[in-house]
Design goal:
The protein is of the alpha/beta class and about 230 residues long. It folds into two domains: about 1-45; about 65-200, 2-Layer Sandwich (Nucleotidyltransferase, domain 5). The protein has helices at about 1-10, 15-25, 30-45, 110-125, 135-145, 170-180, 185-200, 220-225; strands at about 70-80, 85-95, 100-105, 130, 150-155, 210, 215-220. A hairpin with a 5-residue loop joins strand 6 and strand 7.
Length: about 230
């Protein structure tokens, strides 16, 4: 009854927390007994079904059907050295997942973002649109893009998943973190960042899954997808 009273007051508790509470009250039951008690309670008191929020197509990320239709840009905080942050600016192609522009800097301002965009456009040509968040540096970039007849498409506030560089490619942000973890000077961060950019172009992606004539599965890298443009 003591366990049931605990669950009446805290219906979301799991069996580990119920066991800790019972142990504290002097009831040293084993895990199996407590698990059975909690399972019995949850069966008798099923939770209310979660509220299903209707999907809104307007909230989805832009869909690219060919290379260089939509590019996604974001700024990453890398590491702090001597009390100052170092930043990475990465520009992804939405179709191939390839890095079309990248830079490692000690500041995040318009000149740095323009430098990355200039590098990408000089190599690949201009995309149809660039997607970013609503940071001041991208607001300042907008007139530069318009002069090149490139649409600037800011995400809706509170919808980070619309920028694939921020949401859809988050696993690669974690990989970049792993590359620069433990770096203690700017030169080593620079080398590791450059290595990440090179390695990234050869990582396979689930969207590039293919099957050959004999039914065997293989993956194309972002660089191969973009190179075939």
């Amino acid at each position: 009854m003591e366990g049931f009273r605990l669950l009446d007051n805290n219906p979301l508790l799991g069996h580990y927390r119920v066991k800790m509470a019972l142990d504290f009250r002097g009831y040293p039951y084993g895990h199996t007994s407590v698990w059975q008690m909690v399972a019995l309670y949850k069966e008798a008191h099923p939770p209310a079904p979660p509220h299903q929020r209707p999907s809104n197509p307007d909230e989805r990320p832009q869909h690219a059907t060919a290379p260089h239709q939509v590019w996604y840009v974001d700024v990453w905080y890398l590491v702090k050295i001597a009390g100052h942050w170092l930043y990475s600016i990465l520009l992804f192609d939405g179709y191939s997942r390839a890095l079309v522009g990248a830079g490692y800097f000690d500041r995040q301002n318009l000149s740095r973002v323009v430098q990355v965009c200039h590098q990408a456009i000089a190599q690949w040509g201009a995309p149809d649109a660039v997607v970013s968040d609503n940071a001041g540096v991208f607001l300042a970039l907008s007139p530069c893009l318009q002069a090149l007849h490139i649409r600037w498409e800011p995400i809706a506030r509170g919808h980070p998943w619309q920028n694939l560089a921020e949401g859809g490619f988050s696993i690669h942000r974690r990989m970049l973190d792993a590359y620069v973890a433990g770096c203690t000077d700017r030169e080593s961060v620079y080398r590791q960042h450059a290595q990440f950019v090179q390695d990234y172009q050869f990582w396979r992606h689930w969207a590039h899954k293919r099957t050959d004539a004999e039914g065997r599965i293989y993956y194309l890298s972002p660089e191969v997808i973009l190179g075939n443009a």
